[in-house]
Design a protein that fits this description.
It is a single chain. By secondary structure, the protein is α+β, with helices and mostly antiparallel strands. The chain has two domains: 1-31, no CATH class; 38-150, Sandwich (Immunoglobulin-like), CATH 2.60.40. The chain is built from three helices and nine strands, in the order αααβββββββββ. It has helices spanning 3-24, 38-41, 46-53, and strands spanning 59-61, 65-69, 73-74, 80-86, 91-98, 105-110, 118-123, 129-137, 140-150. Strands 1, 3, 5, 6, 8 and 9 form a six-stranded mixed β-sheet that branches. Strands 2-4-7 form a three-stranded antiparallel β-sheet, with no helix packed on it.
Length: 156
């Protein structure tokens, strides 16, 4: 049997095995898959989503939550970047909200205690508004906000 034929057979079986594992879901991590919670994103006001996510919780302003990337003036409201980091220990959840958006909840991240609290997203802003980050860590609730002006565009 020639070397090129052996090589062809090895490659054929490798590709077949890889394709089979992809189609059957063997290479997919169910832990890492994002889950869409439609009911959370249906809330149309800031107060409504706070009541859905954090019933009767009291938030403390924290200097341990940092906006690594969030412009004070967004040149285009259709694409506003945000990066949130924190020095709080055992962060379990980070929620990003835009107070005056038609749908205030932008993103919700559930974190493992072994993960560093560092999340990024891009979102739309309808108009000038406060961007609020809510953090749950060790059973306590913290928040930080920043006002962002939109100069053009938006999700109007």
């Amino acid at each position: 049997m020639s070397k090129s034929r052996r090589k062809f057979i090895k490659q054929f079986f490798s590709i077949t095995a890889y394709s089979l594992s992809l189609t059957t879901g063997l290479l997919r991590s169910s832990i890492a898959m994002a889950e869409w919670k439609k009911e959370k994103f249906q809330a149309s006001s800031y107060k409504e989503i706070i009541n859905k996510l954090y019933k009767n919780s009291i938030f403390t302003e924290s200097r341990k939550i940092h906006f690594s990337r969030l412009p004070k003036v967004a040149e285009n409201g259709a694409l506003v970047p945000i990066t949130v980091t924190s020095t709080l220990k055992n962060v379990a959840k980070i929620s990003i909200l835009v107070e005056k958006n038609p749908r205030p909840l932008i993103a919700e991240f559930y974190l493992s205690p072994s993960m560093a609290p560092h999340v990024s997203a891009r979102f739309k802003m309808a108009k000038h508004s406060r961007v609020i980050v809510l953090v749950e860590a060790e059973g306590k609730f913290y928040k930080k906000s920043q006002y962002v002006k939109v100069t053009k565009g938006g999700c109007g």
